[in-house]
Design goal:
heterodimer, A: alpha+beta, PmbA/TldD fold, 2 domains, 10 helices, about 20% helix, B: alpha+beta
Chain lengths: ~450, ~475
Amino acid sequence: MSEALGALAQRLLAHAREQGADQSEVWLQESTQLSATVRLGLVEELRQATSRALSLRVFLGQRVARATASDLSWETLDPLVRRAIARARLVSEDPFAGLPEHSASFPSPETLALYDPEFERLGPEQAIARARETERIGLSLEPRVRNSSGASFCAVCSAVWGANSRGFCGHFRQSAASLQVTLLGQSGSDAAQVSDYWYSVARHLAQLESCEAVARQAVARVRRHFGACKLATRQVPVVFEPLTAAELLADLFGAVCGELVYLKRSFLAESRGQQVAAEHVTLVDDGLLPGGLGTRPFDREGVAAQRTIVIQKGVLKNFLCSAYAARKLGLAATGNGTDDGEAPTNFYLLPGSTSPEEILRSADHCLYVTRLLGRGVNLVTGDYSRGAFGLWVEQGEIVHPVHEITISGNLRQMLAGVEQVGNDLDLRGQFGAPTLKLAAMTVAGI
Amino acid sequence: MSTSFVELALNNTPTAAFACYHGLEPGLLDTVLRQASARGADFADIYIEYREASSLHLEEDLLKQSSELVALGAGIRVVAGEQSGYAYTNELSQASLLQAAEVAAQIAAGPTRSQYFALQVTPVPARYPVELPATQAGMGEKTDFLFAANQAARSADARVKDVQVTWSDELRFILLANTAGELVSDVQPLVTFSVNVVAESNGARQAGWKNFGRRAGLEAFSRPQAEALAQEAVRQAVTLLTARPAPAGELPVVLAAGASGVLLHESVGHPLEADFNRKKLSVFTDRLGEKVASELCTVIDDATLPSWRGSVNVDGEGTIPRAATVLIARGVLRAYLQDRLSARLMKLAPTGNGRRQDYAHIPISRMTNTYLAAGESDPEEIVRSVARGIYCKSFTGGQVEPATGKFTFSMHEASLIEAGRLSYPIKGATLIGSGIEVLNNIVAVGHDLELDSGAWMCAKQGQAVPVSVGTPTVKIARITVGGQWA
């Protein structure tokens, strides 16, 4: 099948040229998925599937049209290409439209450690066993943790082929597995329920956290939230745990993307070269990180992956750009292109040297944010307001858990107000951060 | 794909089109279902989908994007007790389907428990007839809508600096067959139009947006509608330019009629989904018949409303919703939103709320069009009754954790109420509360019920489905407002 899809990509490029396209680009992907969810010991859902997808862009001069399909029969693809070319005639001429410059070379998929052949040996029994074991341990550690929304193990392998009429032709295979459990606890028959989760995700099975590690962490997270209350409304120093700090980066990501910058829809649109954050903030997007979840040899336009410094010692150095945004802004494409805007590779904040314990001890009192809920981020203005769960900390000691509060501020002030950066970088998804301490945010509660 | 498939499906039935173009005769479906239930199953079904979609995007005065999507696939589910096996494929050949059936069947082990019924066509209602299938129409009229909205937005106010307009449409043909002998097909259209603007004044920028969604064809939209949406987006952005920071802390909140229904969707809707309740993962678990809200609250989910976004003739697993479901009647919990599996395990009737994103996903309990029924209060009187509080006008969405009932929803446009009057606009902020507590804090419900025509999407467990939300003007005695000053 693999070779067949590579050949199909070339056939589609040839077909687009014959039908009148000046330039074209084809992506084909084949994915296999295996996932098992176990709840209270029973297999709630076992899923297995192989699926395929095509994504296509055709250019007529400076006009572009796109198409995607999951049906790869020629009876579908032939008219799809013809219609795309017909549609391209009807859109506006855009001087910035076009394929990227041809990248001279790409990192080899092998050095990037994208694929683990162990996945080929996984079957439903192994997936079920891992999920079941994780949940079993999770329900055995703490008498107050008695219910579960389920544990799941999921493995996905995919093969990607890309080709364009400028001579780009690339292929790689990748794998990723995840293990997660969500547990519920109650500290008394009348008390409110507490729910929390933990997960691990990795490209290599050997790097996935063990069933026991995932279960223990989920239980610890539930346990620390028994007896939560609200806080009085006030301004306080706020410490983000690595996972919530990573969510902060995910919220910030769009603001450094070329698309929002050229549209002036980012509060950072005019800030390149300026000090936008405290000095100990250095933020990178690293598409080359071996084994990283967002690592791949090239982006969805065939631009080679790279490591881009976005913020260096608080100074905004680079925006992340697709080929289109790069042309609009007179900058270089950074290997973050998609068929529509930009996507992160591995977007993370470099760790500092302070331990999380020292950070918590550094303030008389602070809110330690352990989970965030809802949206509430406006990238045009930078205004930030989200629901939060956390722990109230005094002199480094946890006093009581906190729930049903919001934290609010403005991303510009929040970046400038980063007082400390922990040494505990946690990069488990495509966004990663160490513990972060912000000088002050508004907490709304009672 | 082929226009001929679509023509046959529209002029005859999707069943006929799938049989003619993909060889999916009832006899083959029967064979696949028998294979799926061969290892022992309580229930098995096959969901086959052909979907085409297209979109156009205008930005910087240019029609920059034209996209088209064609999706084809089938999902096979085997249910044994509480366990489900699921497999899907993009290939509709007999060999692929039988293989998927075998994979899905791995979940079950034992003698066949289900009684097997021969397939019989079940007719569905016609709640969203399509006059002009949008995916089949050319780009001309849709392009006119985009440029009309762009022009209307730019001429509405000189402070408008950026305008983005998107049209998207979808036409979905589904064919469902199951071991209960039901063979059902449906044609599900969807159109969406959205305008997003940025206004700038003295170096400050603010965004405004407004969108429209309908389960219908091209006939549901017009140039005046495009222009009105653009003007509303501009009004919102320009109003926000003068907005001051929102207050922080517990305050009385008045929700404007319409889009504020998001609050109900999060605080009540999700926690009333049957899967959470049969697993005892909701604050409403085991509370049927109990008073859970102020008696001013009657909450309804109605999939039967003509052409609303969340409406369905048949849900994602073959159940035809026959009437509105009253979830809460005068404060008393009456029903959950049921999918087939939950209903069977809870020994309650399915309500037609088993929905799925597409063939790659299993159906789960979901909302359709969910709203708070009208009350008796005068909306203006409600505002006048607030000494100091917040009036919420538009929202960007929310999230809930059903097990604890904690939910958020984020205001985009709001005003401060002082001495019973709207005083000045405030910036967006997130509200947070607990479902049951907030329901009991509803102290006034207006007579002005409004369903919002916005293009709401609801996400759960990685599956997005279109829904509608609605509410009359509502007063919540107090809720935490996540603003900037105390």
